[in-house]
Amino acid sequence: MQIVRFTSPLTGADAVGIDDGEQVVELSGITTVGELLRLSSDELRDRCAGADGPAHPSGSVRRLAPVDGLMEVWAAGVTYRRSREARVIESERAADVYELVYDAERPELFFKSVAWKVSGDGDRIAVRADSEIDVPEPELGLVLNSAGEIAGYTVVDDVSSRTIEGVNPLYLPQAKIYLGACAVGPAIRPVWEVADPYALDITLTITRAGETVWDGKSSTSELNRRLDDLAGYLFRADTFPDGAVLATGTSLVPDLPFTLGDGDTVTIGIAEVGTLTTTVVRGLDAMRSQA
Ligand code: DO4
Ligand code: MG
Prior knowledge:
It is a single chain. This protein is α+β, with helices and mostly antiparallel strands. The protein folds into two domains: 2-64, no CATH class; 72-288, Alpha-Beta Complex (Fumarylacetoacetate hydrolase, domain 2). The protein has helices spanning 33-36, 41-49, 81-90, 95-103, 162-167, 172-176, 227-235, 284-288, and strands at residues 2-7, 14-19, 23-26, 55-57, 63-64, 72-77, 108-114, 124-127, 134-135, 138-144, 150-158, 160-161, 182-190, 201-208, 211-219, 244-247, 265-270, 274-282. A hairpin with a 3-residue loop joins strand 2 and strand 3. It is globular, with a radius of gyration of 18 Å. The chain binds 2,5-dioxopentanoic acid and magnesium ion. Magnesium ion is lined by residues 75, 77, 137, 139, 158, 249-250. Keywords: Hydrolase, Metal-binding. Belongs to the FAH family. Residues 105-281 form the Fumarylacetoacetase-like C-terminal domain.
């Protein structure tokens, strides 16, 4: 079962429903994911089990990023050994900060996106025109309700400029927060359907003109943090009335000097959670021209 956000073929309005692989059944009375995330996880489970709105064949609905309303996307950094290594290599003069945060009790958490800027499955992502080395970061996303409970999981791409991040860690917001830098989707896999979130394979495939130019595989078993702990830090001193998505860090980083290019297709798969596919454009004008 997946919780999907989509455009209702009946009304043309945004809707939220339950996809069992054959059909999507609308959750009547609920029009946003944010509304669902105001419920406790027990209430959410009951609500999903009782879906009784209009039904549509699964393949017939266009899925939207499962992030809306007042939801925010946040991300954790340097939570896998591979990410720590990559940061140390790209930022010689500030390597220490990454070594220190990997082992520190307090995780690195940073703001990633407001809901309306998030790309969904089948959408575009962007690399900055003022950056030379850019990568996707495939990450398990925690979908957190307004009480900070893990309600489900999704796939997040924390698209990043390694050029800008590598010059100075204080440039991190510019390396990571810009139009086209965040993709989430294709849906939300409810928490009660994933037996062990610490044993999920993550794959990343980048294709260019039909050829694979980079691919890799890892697992959430390599995560150096506990998921509840990451969520707990996010909610320690902040409030999320419509819930939030928290990306849990990348374990796949292509070696330098690999970079994403205009027209590349990025496919991220997380076992039991879903597959998120996007196409890369270069620069703000190309990203803005999206219909
Ligand atoms: O500190 C830089 C951010 C690292 C990151 O985004 C990650 O590890 O996924
Ligand atoms: Mg990341």
